[in-house]
Design a protein that fits this description.
Strand content: 15-25%
Number of helices: 4
Largest sheet: 8 strands, mixed
Amino acid sequence: MDKAHGEERAGTAAFLKSQVRAALIEQRLAMPDRLQRADLLQRVMRFWLVGRPDTVIGAYWPIKGEFDPLPALHRWKEDGELMEEPQRRRIGLPVVDRETKTLSFHVWYPGCPMENDAYDIPKPKDTELIVPTLLFVPCLGYSAGGYRLGYGGGFYDRTLAALEPRPFTVGLGFANGFVDDFEPEAHDVPLDAILNDNGVVWPVG
């Protein structure tokens, strides 16, 4: 009975999460001020990156109305080249391993050769494999304590569990993606930081 009850609770929780995900996607796609919010978050990202020691950063190709981090990162890369002692900075985008369902990161730059992966998301084609020390991840939703709500595929969870050393993880999302009553599960690992169009959400203070 206990096992059946546990499975029933898990099924209910999964259903509720799917409903929250669908509502958040619909809300994000319908935002009338998405471009203005995205511009604000670009600025937040650029200020946040000032002083970071990282030279290899992983990011993502935006889908379903996600915030696009690539313009701010390209500016970060160019800023490195303009330093008194020029710094070689690299940006990586994820490539899915279909067998392990984990992500590896390959060099991206504007105009680099791209192709669609198995999920129809653009990825770099035949560029160098890199290991980021800082990883920006998209947040469909997020909650207090640095917890992220994604699409449910578990790609980032499996990838972070496999990466050694673990990169510093930063969630990116819009302010209206905050989920007040989100309850993390046992396997959920909080992000190191979360940024939205209002500034730094996590860590608080």
